[in-house]
Write a structure and sequence with these properties.
Blueprint (H helix, E strand, L loop, with lengths): L9 H9 L2 H10 L5 E5 L2 E4 L4 E4 L2 H4 L8 H12 L12 H13 L6 E5 L2 H16 L3 E5 L8 H4 L5 H4 L9 E4 L4 H10 L2 E6 L15 H12 L2 E5 L23 E4 L11 E5 L1 H8 L16 H16 L2 H20 L5 E7 L2 E6 L7 H5 L1 H22 L2 E2 L1 E3 L2 E7 L7 H16 L4 H17 L5
Parallel strand pairs: 3-13, 5-6, 5-7, 7-8, 8-9
Antiparallel strand pairs: 1-2, 2-3, 4-10, 9-10, 11-12, 12-15, 14-15
Helix pairs in contact: 1-2, 4-12, 5-12, 6-11, 9-10, 13-16
The structure holds pyridoxal-5'-phosphate.
Length: 459
C-alpha cells in the first residue's frame, strides 16, 4: 500500500489488512489517499504536512472543532481527579447531573435520560421504550430516513441498500413518505402504533427540509392515535441547525428526543434518548423492569462530564447563534456564487447543515436539456464524489450525503471562521466554473480513474 508519491504507510496497510479492506480499495479507486495525522479547530493535517479545512466534522459530530483547548483542559482535570468512571451498584452521579441539565435545556418536559454510546443505540433505546410504554409493537418511519446501523435502527431506515443484506429485520415496521401528513394519518389509523420516528431534517438523504408545520402536525397526529413521537436529532441537535435543537423552532416538544454526535463533540462516545417521565415510568419504572435496558459503558462518568462541559461551552460560545448566522451567510454566498450554473439545482439547509444539490437544470447546457436522465444518473453516481475529490485536492474536506451522492453536504464546526466560509464558497465556485458542460466533467472523471488504474488503484 503506497501513497500517491509511492511512499509506504504501514498503518494504512494494517488498516487494509485488519479493519476494512474494501474501504481502502475504494479510497484508492477514487484517488482519495490521505492519511490524516493531526487536527486542531477546523483544521486537519495529513502525513505529508498538507493542511485541510474540515467541512465534514466527522459527519456533524465536531461542533466545537477538533481538540478544543477548553474541553481538552477539562478532560485532563477529569482524568486526574480519580473519579469513579463505572460502578453499576450505585447511581452514576455524573449521569444524574447531565440528565438534569439536558432536561432543563429541553424545557423541562424531557426529564428522564437513557444514555448510550452511539446514535444507533439511542434509536434502539427509543424503540424498546416505545414498545414497553405503549404495549404496542408497530413502528412507523419515513422513506429515505437514516437512523444508524444496529438491527433495530436498520429496521426503521428507508434505504434498501443498507437494509436488504440483513433482512428479515424487526417485524411490524412500516414505511411512509417523509413530509406527508396524510400518509402518517393513514398509517397511524390503519394499525395501533407504538411510535413514529422521524428526523427534523433528513441529512443523509440529501438535506431534505420538510414544510414548516410538518413536525408539529405529526406530533399532534401521534398524540391523537396514542403513538409516541420520537424525534431523531442525532445529527441536527446541539446547535447545528441554528437553535439548540431543531424542534425548538417548530413549536412542539417530542415524547422522546434522540441525541448523539455533537453531545460528545467527536471526543467521547455518548448518546441518549430523552423521554417524558410518564413514558419512561410506564416502560421501565418498576423493580421488575428497571434493568430491561442498559449497557456496561452507558452513562460512564468521563463521557457525562465531558458532555456537561460541551453543554456549557455550547451556550457560552453561543454556538447555535453562530450556526444560524454563519449558515445563512454560507447558504446565501453559495447561492449567489453558483446562480445560473447548469448543474446546480439548489442550495438548502438550516444553520450549518447545508446541502448543494447537483443535477440537471432547466436552463442547463445542451446535453443537460437533451438527456436530463443521463445527467441525473451521472450526478447521483459520480458528480458529488467528484466534487468532494476536487475540494480535497484544494484542501477542503467535505462529502456527499451518504445516501444521496448528488448532494454535497457542508457541515463545518459551528465556530468556523468567516474566512473559511469564504474559502469554501470560492473553491466550490471555481471548480464548478470549469465544468459547465457535461463532456469536460466526464473526461476529467475518466482521466482520474485512468490515472488511478495505471497506478494499480493504489491508496
Ligand atoms: C439522524 C441520525 N440518526 C442516527 C445516526 C446514527 O448515529 P451513529 O453513527 O452514532 O450510530 C445518524 C448518523 O449519521 C444520524 O444522522
Amino acid at each position: 500500500m503506497t501513497d500517491e508519491r509511492g511512499r509506504h504507510h504501514p498503518s494504512v496497510e494494517r488498516y487494509a489488512d485488519h479493519v476494512n479492506p474494501a474501504f481502502v480499495k475504494l479510497l484508492g479507486t477514487f484517488g482519495y489517499g490521505r492519511v490524516f495525522v493531526r487536527a486542531k479547530g477546523a483544521r486537519l493535517w495529513d502525513d505529508a504536512g498538507r493542511e485541510y479545512v474540515d467541512f465534514l466534522s466527522a459527519f456533524g459530530a465536531m461542533n466545537l472543532g477538533h481538540n478544543p483547548p477548553a474541553l481538552i483542559a477539562a478532560m485532563h482535570a477529569f482524568l486526574d481527579d480519580e473519579m469513579v468512571n463505572l460502578v453499576h451498584v450505585g447511581p452514576q452521579i455524573h449521569a444524574g447531573d447531565l440528565a438534569a441539565e439536558l432536561a432543563a435545556l429541553t424545557g423541562g418536559e424531557l426529564d428522564v435520560a437513557m444514555f448510550s454510546l452511539s446514535g444507533s443505540e439511542a434509536v434502539e433505546s427509543a424503540i424498546k421504550l416505545a414498545r414497553a410504554a405503549t404495549g404496542r409493537t408497530r413502528v412507523l418511519y419515513t422513506k429515505n430516513a437514516f437512523h444508524g446501523n444496529g438491527l433495530g435502527a436498520l429496521s426503521v431506515i428507508g434505504h434498501g441498500r443498507l437494509r436488504d443484506p440483513f433482512e428479515p429485520l424487526l417485524p411490524e415496521c412500516g414505511e411512509i413518505p417523509f413530509d406527508d401528513l396524510a400518509a402518517l394519518e393513514a398509517g397511524l389509523g390503519a394499525h395501533r402504533c407504538a411510535c413514529f420516528i422521524v428526523e427534523p431534517i433528513q441529512a443523509e438523504a440529501g438535506v431534505i427540509v420538510p414544510a414548516d408545520g410538518y413536525l408539529k402536525e405529526a406530533k399532534a397526529l401521534c398524540e391523537k392515535h396514542g403513538a409516541l413521537f420520537v424525534l431523531d436529532e442525532v445529527q441536527t441537535g446541539m446547535g447545528r441547525t441554528g437553535s439548540m435543537f431543531a424542534f425548538e423552532e417548530q413549536g412542539l416538544v417530542p415524547d422522546v428526543l434522540l441525541l448523539g454526535k455533537g453531545l460528545g463533540a467527536g471526543l467521547v462516545p455518548i448518546s441518549c434518548a430523552l423521554a417524558k417521565r410518564k413514558v419512561h415510568q410506564k416502560a421501565f419504572g418498576s423493580a421488575e423492569r428497571f434493568d430491561l435496558h442498559g449497557s456496561t459503558y452507558a452513562a460512564n462518568a468521563l463521557s457525562c462530564r465531558v458532555a456537561r462541559e460541551i453543554l456549557r461551552l455550547t451556550s457560552e460560545l453561543d454556538l447555535s447563534g453562530q450556526a444560524r448566522r454563519k449558515g445563512e451567510r454560507l447558504t446565501r454566498a453559495l447561492a449567489e456564487r453558483t446562480r445560473g450554473h447548469p448543474f446546480v439545482r439548489e442550495i438548502r439547509g438550516r444553520g450549518l447543515l447545508v446541502g448543494v444539490e447537483l443535477g440537471p437544470t432547466e436552463g442547463g447546457g445542451l446535453l443537460n436539456r437533451l438527456v436530463p436522465g443521463l445527467v441525473d444518473a451521472l450526478s447521483r453516481k459520480v458528480f458529488g464524489q467528484w466534487l468532494s475529490m476536487r475540494l480535497l485536492e484544494r484542501g477542503i474536506l467535505a462529502q456527499p450525503a451518504s445516501q444521496q451522492w448528488n448532494v454535497l453536504k457542508l457541515q463545518p464546526p459551528l465556530d468556523v471562521d468567516d474566512a473559511d466560509l469564504e474559502l469554501v464558497v470560492r473553491h466550490t465556485g471555481e471548480i464548478l466554473d470549469q465544468y459547465r458542460e457535461l463532456l469536460p466533467l466526464v473526461r476529467d472523471v475518466g482521466e482520474r480513474l485512468g490515472k488511478q488504474m495505471r497506478g494499480g488503484w493504489s491508496f
